[in-house]
Amino acid sequence: MKMKSFYIVALLTSGIFFVSCTDYEVKDPNFMPPDVVLNEDPKYNEIIEGLPEPGKMQAYKPSLIGKPYRPITVNYSNEFKPVSRWTPGETRIVAYMADYEPQVVTEEDYKAITNKYGSLTTGIKFEATGRFHVTKGADGRWWIVDPEGYPRYERSVTSVRYGSSERNRAAWMERFGSDENWLATSQTELASIGFHGTGAFCTDTYEKIQAHNSAHPDAPMTLAPSFGFLSKFKSTNGYAYPGGKSENILGLVLNEEAWMKFCKEYVEEALAPYKGDANVLGFFSDNEINFSTQGSNILDQFLKITDNDDLARKTADAFMEEKGADKVTAALNTEFAGRLAEIYYKGVREAIDAFDPGMMYLGTRLHGTPKYMKNVVEACGKYCDIVSINYYSRWSPELDTYVPDWATWAGKPFLVTEFYTKGTEDSDLNNLSGAGFSVPRQEDRAYAYQHFTLGLLEAKNCVGWHWFKYQDDDGNDNTGKPANKGVYDNYYQMYPYLSKFMQEVNYNVYNLIDFFDN
Predict the structure, then answer these.
(1) Model confidence pLDDT, tens digit, residues 8-25
(2) What is the H or E stretch that residue 192 is in?
(3) What pLDDT does residue 37 have?
(4) Which ranges of the chain have pLDDT less than 70?
(5) Residue by residue, what is the 3-state secondary structure of 198-218?
(6) What is the distance between the alpha carbons of residues 114 and 375, in angstroms, rounded to a whole number?
(7) What's CA 158's distance to the chain center, in Å?
(8) Are 308 and 243 in contact (CB under 8 A)?
(9) Cβ atoms within 10 A of the Cβ of 67, count?
(10) Please, what is the Cα angle at 71 between 65 and 72, to 5 degrees?
C-alpha cells in the first residue's frame, strides 16, 4: 500500500482561518470548514467533505495551560452496539488549534528530522548507551532516549500477530505470503504514518520481529514483550489461589522468599532471547494486575477469605491489627495494596538488574482503579523505569488532576500502553466487546485519536503511547465478540481516514511538544 501524505485545504471566505486567540467568545459567521484531501497525487483527487464545523474559540480543558482552540463535537459511549445513548464530547483536532501550524507535512519532511527509531535528530542529544533509557530534561520534560542518544517520543501499536479468521488468513496470504514480507511491509507502512514499534501481546511474533530487525537493521520495529509472571509463579510452585479465587492471585507474592527466587529464575529464562537487544524498548511483567477494582478492595477480598491460615488472610488480619482498625477505608486499602506492589515490583526489578541491567522495566500496565491508587503508583515508580497505564473510560487525559499526580507519586514518566475507539456504524464487526469507547464512524475514531494524543503531548511526564491495536478483531476473538480496534482492517488495509489523522499528529509530535511547552 502506498501511503500518501495528509493535508487540509482551508476554504477561506473571510481571509482568516482563526479568530484571535485572545477573543474566546467570537465565532466567525463566515467560517467554512476545511476540506480533507487524503491523497496529494493528482490522479487520485480524493476530497472528503469538510471537517465538522467547530464551536467558538475557547481555552482547552482539562489542562494546566489552556491553549485556545475551537472544539468539534464527537459522540461517544461506553455501551456496545446498538448504542442507545451517546455523550457529546468536546474534541480538539490539529486543524482547529489556534496559533499552531503543522511543520511536518510529508514523509520526506518527517524522515529529514528523524532516525530509524522515529527519534528527533535535529535538536538536543543525550548520552548514547546503546540501549533505550529515560531521562528528565532541564525543563522538566521526560524523554525516552534511543540507543543512539536521540530523544524518542514513543508511538507504537500493540498485538502485531496473525488474525484468527478464515478471511484474515486468506488476505494475509494474498497480500504478504511470508512472515518476512508481512513484517517488512507492516514496518514500512506503520513508519510512514509515524509508528515505529510494537507493544504488548505480539503473541508468537516477537521472534519474527527480531528476525526482521536483523535482516533490516535500518528499518527496525522496536519490541516491548509482555509476560505473565504471576500466573507462571502460581503454576511453577503449585500454589492454589488465595481463598480459591483467581482475583486474589496477587496475594501469592506474600510468599516473598519464593517470589524473589522465582523472579530471578524466570527472568533468566523468559528474557534470554531479548538480553542485550538494542531494539527492545523494555518489557511488561504482567497485565492489569488486580490491586483493587471499582467494586472490590483487595484488603476486603483478603479479609473475606474463610481459611484463617491462608497467608493472604493472615497478612490482612495483621495489617488491620497494626492499624488498630476494624473497618476497611479507602486509605487503608490503598496502603495495603501498596505493600503488595512493593513486594511484587521489587522482585522483578532486582531480577532484571542482575540479568540485564540495560533493559527497561515497563511495569504492569496499570488500569482502572489501580492507576489512581497513590501507594501502588509510588511502588511502581520506585522500581520501574516507566509507569505503564492502560487509559480507558476518559474522553480526555486528566491533565489537571491525575496526570500531575502520577508525576508526583511515581517520580518517573508514564507511557499509555492501551487506548482506542471503535466505530459502530460503519464496521462489519459486531463490536460487542472492548474497553474503548464506541463512536459512530471511522472519522470519529480519527478525531478521537488526535484529541487524546494532543492531551498526552501537553503532559511533560508522558513519554508516548501504544495504540490498541495493530488490526481489528475477527472471527472468534473475544469469544465471538470482535471489535473495530485496529489501524488495519481484516484485509490488512489501513483505515485511510484514521491513518491520515494519526499521521498528522505522529509526524508533528516534536514541534507540538515545543508548542505546548512554550
Answers:
(1) 443 333 333 333 333 344
(2) helix 179-192
(3) 58
(4) 1-49
(5) ECCCCCCCHHHHHHHHHHCCC
(6) 38
(7) 8
(8) no
(9) 17
(10) 155
DSSP string spanning 399-457? Answer: TTTHHHHHHHHHSS-EEEEE--EEESSS-SS-----SSEEESSHHHHHHHHHHHHHHHH
Please say whether the beta carbons of 257 and 327 come within 8 A: no
In whole angstroms, give the CA distance from residue 146 to residue 157.
18
What is the pLDDT, as a whole number, of residue 24?
40
Find the radius of gyration of the CA atoms of the chain. 24
Residue 185 φ/ψ, nearest 5 degrees: -65, -45
Q: Check if the beta carbon of residue 433 is closer than 8 Å to that of residue 411.
A: no
- Nearest CA to 297 out of 274, 310, 282, 316 is that of 316
pLDDT in tens, 408-421: 999 999 999 999 99
What is the residue-wise DSSP string for 260-300? HHHHHHHHHHHTGGGTT-TTB--BBS-SS--SEETTEEHHH
Matching residue, cell 457529546: 88
- Cell of residue 373, nine digits: 491508587
pLDDT score, position 124: 94
Compute how many other C-beta atoms are within 10 angstroms of the C-beta atom of residue 201: 20
